[in-house]
Amino acid sequence: MQILINGDGSDQYSIKYNSYMNDNYWKEHYEIQEIGKTIETDKKIAELADANEEQKQARLKQLEELIEKTKKMISYQGLQDAVNEMFSAKGGIMERIAGYQKEKDEIGTKFVQLLAKSKDEPATEVPGCVILYGPTGTGKTTFLNGIREQSKDNAEVVDISSIMMMDSFLKILNDMLKKAKVRYKDEGKRTIFLMNDAEKIFAINKEDAPKMGIILDDSDIKMLEAYGNNYKTVAHFKQLLDEVSKIPVEGAENTDQRSASTFFITTNYPHLIHQDILSREGKATKIPVGLASNFNLGEVLKFYFKKMNDVADKLKAFKHNPDYKEAIDGIAGITDKGRENIKKMIENGTVDNLHVDYNNINYEKLAKSLNPNKTEGAYSNDSLRVISQNAFLDYLEKNPAEDDYRDSFFKVLINTKRDINPARYQKFKLIDKMLQDIEIDPDTLEQLLNQKKMGVLSEKKANLLQFHVEKIKTRLSSLKEQENNVPLTEAQLKKKKELEELQQKIDANEKNVVETNIEDDDDI
Question: What's the total number of domains in the chain?
Fold first, then answer.
């Protein structure tokens, strides 16, 4: 069986499946509505028409046939909805995502809880920007959709991903922020703006990447060539993030930008996002969503195994439906052979054997064998989802009354390459290390600067040093800008002093390098 995975991390099966399901859902949905209208109309005609008894009886018979047809369509649609629901996630981040407890807790502590608290305590500081970053297929968009569902009672959630690339984006956004301000004043409700693939509007210039210590691969270059040079947008957001989450107060400074709003964004290319956004002091909360491993990976696998068992239970439930054949024929996403096997199992009374035994699996051992590593790379969460779904199709095509789903799972797994190759895996680890908010300590900085001065710094360390140099510069600049507008907190003043000391070391090193070069020229 061929696993259909596209280059962007999506899978052709899901695209075709979801498209088919949505198209057929609305088609059947409207047909049922129209039939319902017809039945009501015809009842009135039958009751009021001055026709002979024979004509009335003929019309009533037609109505009974329509009613039976409608019942069948409702049953058919119910099965489609049930199976579709099993294959799609719903609810908040706890319901949608297995494992990743650390990430869930961090989102809860740094955003969700503060958002809920702000409803009763308006002075609560809610971040102006939350950035979820990680490789393709790790579930960042799923987190985003979970946040949407989880926060809808406390905030108006607006997805602006589809308008980010419009020429009029900033104008449209400013109008939305004005509406957000009015909404807060009238309803006391905050606004969350969702932004997927934020690197498309916050990317640095291709020429600036080396200055920031970033090694570009082909994927990075294509991204920057397509979406770089967005400094106008970056400059706008740089100022916006300082005020946007604050509640609008009449007479306060920068009140135009205050709209009680938060930007919740995702990116697969965090290293390409401009430092003025990424390291905005106290304004951008960064949360990595990495590749699942060990316990998290085991939980992800268990989640998908259980989901396939839920689908099996839904299919078994239709053994009591006299029109099960027609209903099963209408299921999208299952092969013809799989549908025929389900019907045969209902006919011969073995459909109850349709089962995915998700409890009797050593997920710890399975996760260990699938863990990401620098030699083989990694399976993304999306890839594991596709594997589990394709394994279920394979299971239905065999003899599900006697065979084991686990055999199909391992068969498909063995024939599926890890979609994140070793180079991408290693790169993400390096990017994650660079982006962590752990500041470089003065001694390590001085050591790296001395190695640079002596010309013995490796390329890897040189890039890491340059990244921290730019980060220190940006964070210090951000704090100085804030200090010009409002007094800094005690913690911010302490951070400013630490950064100034680090900047002095950098400046002194640069001065020594310049003086050394002048002396070398004199010798020549």
Answer: 3
